[in-house]
Structures are given as structure tokens and as C-alpha cells.
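hiii so my PI (J.) wants the whole complex modelled not just the main chain, which honestly fair. so below is everything: three entries, each one labled with what it is. i double checked the lines twice but i was tired so who knows lol
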Amino acid sequence: MSDDLDRCDVAVVGAGVAGALIAYRLAAANYRVVMLEAGPAGRNRQDLVADYSLAAIKTPRSPYADNQPSSPVWSPDSEKDYIQLGPSPFKSTYLRRVGGSTWHMLGNMPRHVPADFRLATSYGVGVDWPIDYDDLEPWYCEAETELGVAGDHAELNGLHGAYRSRAFPMSKIWPAYGDIFVAKAVEGLTFEGADVRVLTTPQARNSRPYDGRPACAGNSSCVPICPIGAKYDATVHVSKATTAGAVLRTQAVVTRIELDSMTRRVSALRYTRWDEQGRRDERRLRADIYVIAAHSIETPRLLLISSDSDAAPTGVANGSGQVGRNLMDHLQGQMAAVVPQPLFPYRGPPTTVGVDTFRDGTFRASHAAFRLSIGNDGMGRVETPFAALEQKLVEGLIGSRLRVALGDRLIRQFRISYSTEMLPSAHNRVTLADAVSDSFGMPRAQLSLHLEDYNRLAFEKAAALISSIFDRLEIPDSDRKPQPKDTYSGAGHIIGTTRMGTDAGSSVVNQHCRAHEHDNLFIVGASTFPTGGTANPTLTVAALALRAASKISSLLQRGS
Amino acid sequence: MSKFVTGYSDIGGELEQLYATIMSSKPDWASELASLAIAVDEAKANADPEAALMATIKQQPEVGHAARRLAHVWYAGRLSAENGVDAAFVSEEAYFGGLIWRAARAHPPGLSGGYFGHWRYAPDV
Amino acid sequence: MQASRSRLLSLLTEACELEHGLACSYLFAAFSIKQDLDEGGLSWKQLQAVRLWASEIYMVAAEEMLHLAQAWNILAAVGGSPYYLRPNFPQRRSYYGFHLPLALERFGPSALRRFVSYETPADQLILPVDARTDDDEPTEYRSVGELYALIREQILNLPEDQLFFQGTQGEMGPDITHFPNIIPIKDRVSALAAIDMITEQGEGTDYDRGDSHFAVFQRTLASLVTEKERDPAFEPARPVLENPVPRIRGDWNAHGKINLIRDPFASQLGDLFDDVYSLMLRLLQHAFASGPASKVAELFCDTAINAMTTVIKPLGEALAKLSSGRGDGSHAGAAFGLTRHVTLPAAESIALAVAAECAHELAETAAELATSGHAPGQLGVAEANLKQIAGALASAR
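here's the output for the full assembly
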């Protein structure tokens, strides 16, 4: 391969979970695969843990010094790092490095439920997917095996109709001491006519040694980093891909997708390799098939930046005008409390069980579906252990009195959070901030978001449900800390922006994640979801990526 | 003095030296800590030395300030926040050795709390 | 080998002894691993590593306990009785068919090398098989996996309709036992699935060998050796005695060197450890012998597993932190001594009464010991948890 122009079978932009899985599957099938990753490959895991331990505030980005400002590919770490057009802020972030945002994901791996794929048909809101649960079910099984998902097959088989044709590769992650207490307390509870049941959460976290990685040892720092690799992150498949022969180019920012003006096929990727000394090196990569897997903000940004007055006047793959639109998240809130009985939080994964009852139902015609996570990490951000310490010190306690009083509070801290589905909306979107460029001269993304009544109403319902659980736990009102009205946090689930559909006039890619307008271009990741459901998106991202890899492989075999 | 103020009798070692170095490098700590030392000595003569020191703390803001600072660094592994801004942790050992996690009968996030599934049971620490 | 029920029961019983003995020797090694920076000799990065090693060894030990429980399920299903006895440590090389001694040894390269040999996959064995002469029914196998192959052969060669008895004995499942992977046994298919599960976890298969006990121990050994080379001062383990015992009793001292704990306090704590351990085994034995239909099965399992995780573990760690009193800098350790305690009687109400009384007495002993000036912090935790357990048994009477 020549250095400034080279050629491969498949070029993959982004070494996160979607890109890595595709690169791995295709490299294993003996195709020549090149992955271009904007961010660095990163340092040794222990060095990342060191940075995490020293950070004053343990934000998602805190272990990753190489993704912080001064790096030309710094990643957003809070809503303040975005150009926000409003009216409501977009709060979820992502990570630009080998392995992508899976580094700091929690690791929950629920599947979508069947109704999530036909929201418009079932409830008259949102849109339907071009595929249904049956199409994706075998790929969910594959994804669970690839990522290593621990779960309770018997308990989750058939949840809201989501049957499972294969058991999880590992038995469930144990619920925590407090989870068992809460599950007992809510036995027999109904809410709006439905039984409230506490179910274990499937997680990409080992419950025994799996794929050469150890079992979870309860480091309790899944967000932002698992110090031992017991939680899956996409470096697993990046490394499998390179072992299978794929080439990984790190610190390689794709600056433009080039199109052939005759065929409108992608003809090359233009990219810049950078280093810490400020050197930049412009290159070009040609392939038979191109896969954009840069997550839901960078992907539409790159497509829009690559507009071509001739072949793609409004941006690559954007004939429908849908690129960048339908930006979604799972808007979250929580209710925290001090429980009368000790629940012993701060041990084990931050959450291991939840309430899935309201992930589907006829109510979805009027308000969002939601999922509750029973927390195992105290009161979350409402009152950190450090804040509790401050409070006890201000009270003037010292010595054994301080130790006992602080301990007594910490072992009783508790939270339940809710995560709500957003409907796709054309005015929630990623656009280009033409006047503001990054250090590669590329316009930055700007975000617009509108908080709808569909979510506001779900916030109220979820809060009422949590209140009824708190009643069962006999928590006095004075010890409850509700979420302020109409406020929310991000789930880290950046969804939408290049949605899939059957109609080229209203969607960006087809059911195989292939761009309607450019037949050698695939766009993968949560950006292709037409609607968000209530499942953490990574498992569906992985299932769709594996399905796309299979499609790409058959196209390459046919030589198209 | 650290043991008295934190309520943990088994602390010491390298962290104690580290914290002592930090405190001696801060001019405003010296006189405060000296007052605290005197107050601790006086308190020890009482039947309930802790209660006695807590009473002194209420009367002498300087002693209270020093006691809070000292307890804070041991519990948190970093100095108290200033002007609402949290300090970074003093060192990795300070973060991982923070007493706050012992008080919670847990472990600092980022350090294993034990075998797979231990979180299902009451703490064994 | 001729297939017969009695032959199968005998092999399963041998498997129980072996799984049980392996679990204890792994736990002993895990108890000896340092857990805190203030124990000295560790940087924070080394602390991260040793905590991971400890958690991996506990993981393997828990799976050996699962295997024991699984063998109990099979035993109960085919007309045997869950068996929890075994010779005290150390166990002589010739006692088991695989010709490896079982001993209590602190975490380190020597213990890890032994662990690797216990779990070696059948296709990697190079050890010769010696004739064993000191047993009524000499059985030859070179690894745990080979012993299970013999069991599998028996199950395949015995008529299924006669082998398995009607009833729910043998059907202890995940809900009741705290083992998510345990398989209730009612027929040949389930029994063979159980044996496959045990073998796969131990030595792995061609597809997942990297996730077997064998691989875990090999990885741990390699990391330990590398870290020792990098930092010769690195000492991950507490200096616990090899095969410590709180007192000489029964057949102790018959099969190899034991080391008496001389410090009176540590010795009393060692006795308490053994007594709680024995009660735990008796509770589990009763539950597995009775099956899930028993009214006390769930309570006994809960109590026993809680005793394991919240009393026995901290007591084992406390012992590893206490001086042995031998004046050589050595620490005490858990003996896992089995006394002549007999199984709990089958009648549920009597079993409950005896267990509750025993737990109460042990809780009182623990409370007394916890008031001692040199009791490590773990003892206080164990004492509080033991009191809860005794309370749970008492309130069920």
C-alpha cells in the first residue's frame, strides 16, 4: 500500500463497538479492512485508572487525559462542551478513542421489545422501523455472545413479547444486597394496573471468566472505567479485528467523504493523521465498501461536511434532508433517599436490577415508555459520599462519632432513576456551526433539542411510581430528594440522526444500514435507530452491526 | 491527633507522612494545628474526650477549622474544597486509602471490593 | 470398569471429597492475600493486582463449591447422600487417584503451580499413572476431569429408569442455593449436562480454554512471576503457616506436617472458624439431602451461604492477619478442620433446633472473643453477622 493513497476492501470510520465488530467479522472472512480512528489508541488501563483516581470530579472523561482539551480530538464531557441552540440542552457525551464510548458506558444490555419496532402502528406516535424484532432476534443472540452478556434467560425470555431463542452466554450478575431488599419490599405492588416487578438487568459484564477476561470483581467504577476489563469495551473487538488482519490507523481524522460525480458512489475517504507534536499528514483511502461508524454526532457532522455541489448538494446521504435530524437520548431523572434500613451501597456494579414493567403499554400513545434502574451507588449525584462527609464535618462531629454518623448515612443512601424514551422529531437535530471550526478546519456540530410533554408526563409517572416504591420502603418524606420538575440528565445514549427506513424520501439508510443514495456506503451505530425505545442502545447497535457485516460480506462475495 | 480526630486507631504509615508534609507546606495550617493539638491534649483529660473536643470546637472556630481540615483529608484523600471548588486527590494512594469508604463499609470506586457477587451479601469488612 | 450403582456412588463421593478439598485450599490461599496498602509491601498498582488475583481465586473456589453442590445433587438423585467429609489437611499424595497432595498453603508461585496441576486439561497431562494400593477400590485418574469422565461412563452404562429415583431429592436449583448455574438432576440428560458444566469450568474446552480454572491459575502465576521480577520486594501474601491447626485432634498429624497455632487467642479463633465451617456444612448437607420440598431447605441454604460469605471469609482473613505465636514471624490461618460432628438429623424441627442452638453458642463465643484487645476488625464484622444468622435460625423455630 502506498502511503498517501491506499486501497482496501472495506474502510471503516470509527473504532467503537459498531466499527470494530464489522472490522472483526470482515477481517475474519479474509477481506482487507482498514479502520480509521480519529482518537488515540490510549495508554495502559492502569494509567487511565491513575488519572481517574486523581481527578477532583469523576466525570465520564476523567480517566482519559488524551481526550481532554489540548488534544485536537478532545471529547465532550458535559453539556457545556457543546454548541447548544436549545431551547433545551442536550446532555449526553461520547468518547473519541479506540474502543469509543464503550469505555465509559455502564454496560447494561437489554434488548428492544417488539413494540419498539412499530411504535407508529401500535400507538400512533413516532415511526416504525423497517425491520421487526423477529428480524433482529438471531442477531441479538450473536451480539450477546460477542460482547459477553450475563443475564437471566428464564426471567427475561418473553419480556413484553421479546422472546429469546438462545440463553445468555453467562448467568446473571448477582443483584446487590439492597436490590434484594427492595425487590421483597415491592412484592405485590401495582401501579396503574400493572404489576411492578424487579428484574435483573442483562449486562456486558462477566459473571465468570469469559473471552479471556476476568469476572466482575466489584470495582464499582464501570462509568467511567472498568480497571480489569470485566466489563466489555470495544477494544476487545478492535484487537480481534487486528489479530484477524485488519489494519488500525489511529489519530486519523476523516475530513471528507469523496463521491464519484457520475455514479454517486463513495470514491475515497480523505483523512488527516495527527500527532502530539502538531504534525499533520493528509491522506486518502479507497475501498470497495465504506462504513461510517462515528456515533450519532460525528457521523452526521461528517456527512454534512462532505456535501458536494454536484453529487450531494445537501450532504452525503442527505437527499431526504434527514441527516442530523431526530436526535434523541433517553432523558433521565432520579429520586434519591435515605432509607431507614441499611442497604450497603457502593459495592458491586452501580445498578444490577430494574423495573421493566413500563417499557411498553398502551400509555405510549400519550407518554413515553420508561425503565427504572434501582441504584446501588448511594444517592448518585444528589449527595455524594464527599458531600455527606462535608455535612457531618459542618455538624461538628469528630472521632468515632464522625465515623459512626457518616457510616450510618452512607449505608442507607439510595436512589432509583428513570430513563424515558424520546420521540423522533425533525427539529431535534445536529447541524453544522459554519462559523466555528475545530483544529482540522471542520465546522463543529451544534445541537437543538426540545423537551416535549411526551417526556414531561413520563417524568411525572416515573416519579409517582418511585414514590410508591419509597412508600413500601417506609422512607419518610423528609428523607426523599425528588428530581426538580422538568429537569433531566442525559443517559449517554445518543440516538437518531441517520435513521433507517424503507423510503428514501424520509430516511437515510435502508434496513441493512446501507445508504439509500450511495450504494457502497454503510452507516452504522445508534444513529440509524428510527426510534429509541427504552433499552440501552449498545446491544442493538451491535446486533445491527453484525447484520450489516453479513450483508457487506455477501456484497463483496458477489463483487458488487 | 489524626487518630483522635478521625476515630480510626490504625491509621498512619506513608499517608500520615504525606499529609504531614502537605500541612507543613501550608503556612496558615501551622497555628491552627497547634491550637488543635492543645485542645486534643486538654480533651484527653476528660471522661469523654471526644465530647470535650466537640465542645471546644464550638467555642473556638480556629480549633474547629483545623479539626475539620484534618479529618477531611484523611476521610476524603484530598484537601477541603475552597470557594466551592473540589481539590484534586493528593495521590493515588490517598484516593484509594480514603477513610470515607471504610466508613461506608465499602471500597473506593476503581478498586475491587472483593470476589464476584460479594455485593449480594452484607459487608464482610 | 463394571458399571454399578455402588461404583457410581463411590466415585461421586470421591468427587465430593476432592471438590471440597480443592475449594478449601483455594480459599486458604485467597485468605492469605493482602488487601490493604497499610499491610505494607504494596504500591497502589500492586494492590489493584492482588485484589484482582484474590477475586479470581475466590471465583474459582466458589465454582468448586458449586461443583460440590452439583455432585450432591447427582448423589441425591441416584440414591446416595450428600457427602461432606474428607480427610483433614494435608492430604497425602496417594490418597486420591491423581497423586497430588492437597495442602493449605499461602498464595504464591508454589501454591499456584499446584493449583494448575489440579486443573490441567486431560489432553495436556503428562503425569504417569501409578498403581494405588491403599484403597478398597483403587481408581486411577490423572486429573479432576478424568474422574468425571469415569462418572459419566457409569451414568451412561446404567439403565436410566432404574438409576434415578422418583422425588425431588437432587433437584436443588438456582433460586434456593445461590448458585445460578446449578442444574437440578432428575434424569440422565441433566446429570450429563451437570458433568459437562463441571468439566468445562475446570479445564475448559477447545473453544473456551482461556476461561477455565486452569487458565485463570496460569495467568495469575504468570502475572505474579512478572511482578516479582520487576519488584523483588513485592510480597503479595501474609506470612501464614502451612497447614495450620488450632489443636491436634482426631487423625490430624497423620499424613504430613501440620503446624500448631500457639497464640491462645488465634487458636480460639481457629476453633471458632472450624466450628462455624462445620455448622455450615451440616446445614447444606441437610438441605441437599432433603431436597427443595423441605420446609427448611431454603433457610438452611441461606444461612449456610451467609455464614460462608459474611462469617467464614472474614474469620479466615482475620486468622491470616494474626500472629501464630510461634515466634518466627509467621501468621495463623484457617485449618478447615473437620471434627466428629455428625450430620443434622433428618427430622426438620429437630435439625432446626440443633442448628439454632449451635449458632447461638457460636455467636456467644464470637462475641466474647471480639471483646479482646487484639481482635482484628474482621472479627467484629464476623461476630455481628453470626449474631444475625443465629437470630434467623432462632426466629424460624
